[in-house]
Each structure stands twice: as structure tokens, then as C-alpha cells.
Specification:
By secondary structure, this protein is mainly α. It is built from eleven helices and two strands, in the order H-H-H-H-H-E-E-H-H-H-H-H-H. It is 63% helix and 2% strand. The radius of gyration is 17 Å and the shape is globular.
Length: 214
Amino acid sequence: METDQLLKSYEMKKSDIQKRLEEFKEILNQSDERIFAELAFCLCTPQSKAFACWNAISSLMKNNLLFTGTEKQIKPFLNSVRFADTKTKYIIEARNFFTENGKLKIKEKIKSFKNAFQLRNWLIENIKGIGIKEASHFIRNIGFDYKNHLAILDRHILKNLKELGVIGKIPKSLTRKSYLEIENKMKRFSELTKISMYELDMLFWSKETGKVFK
């Protein structure tokens, strides 16, 4: 893929992508439960399909189990998600972490951070199952990072960055150091093309999956 092809694709999908990003910006104004649902979704995504993960979280919400269910009740809903046992535990641990006097209190904590980089570091250090990619994904999905600073480096994004010559090769594994190096390269490419980081992410993702999703 050449840069001019990317720009043409962006013009075709720009309105859909920007509409989706505007929807994300509304999440932080919604309930603690709605925000937690995005965290639970991001806890499920490693090595799993995003559509399957969101379907599982949506089903848990519809059955009133995401916020009150036991491990035994939640796990069957994650049968389409890889490592369901571990991810069920992560969801419950995160829920307990953000629960005070029987109520979820995630929004207040998130809003206490000055910027996305501080929040990302805190999430990585405090929420089991959240790495740098998942933290970046969550922050984007709740509309916290309005300046579009973070990269969500999954296999789709890395593949496209390599095709465009932004990176020389796809690393076998992403350390925190290599993640930040690629993020900086993607940021420079974003500035060059005048397509924001999150728009690039959704553009690459839609190219691989056919959908503007999350």
C-alpha cells in the first residue's frame, strides 16, 4: 500500500471514522458501568477477535452479570474468547478494584489524571491483564485522549505500518520500549499525512476487517 492509496481510502471512510470517534467521546460522560464495560472488553481482546469480545461483554450486560456475576456465571459467556478462565478472573479483579461500598467508581478515578500518558501508565501498573496496548485501546474507547496521542499496536496496525514503510519489520514480541518506539514513528507518520493516530488506527483496522468498529 502506498501513501496516496491510504489518503484516498481515508477520504472515502473519513466521515464514518470521525462519527465513530465522536461516539467514543461520549462514553466518559456516561455511567461508571458503561465505562467499566469498555475496560472489560479491552481485558478480553488479547489474542482474541474484537467482535467476539464485544459480543461477550454485551451479552453479560444484557444478562445483568458483568457487574454482579460470579466467576462461574461469567465464564460461559467468554467461550468465544481465548483464555476465558484467565480473562474472567481479570474482569472480576478489575471490578473489585473499582468498587467502593458496593458501587463502581471508575469514572472519578479516570478523570483525576491530567493526560492520557499518566492514565496509561497507571492502568498498566494497577490493573492485572492490562498491558500498554490494552490500556491505549481503553483510553481511546472512552474518549479520554481527545488529542489522539496513543497507538493501539495490534497485528492489523503493525502489518499496515510495515506495508507503508513506517517500520522496517514487525517485531516478534513488543516490549514496552519497542512499543513506544513504534508509537513515535506512527505519530510522525500521522503528522506527515495529517491523519490523526486514532483515525489511522481505524482506517488500518477497517482495511483488514472491512468494518469501522472499536
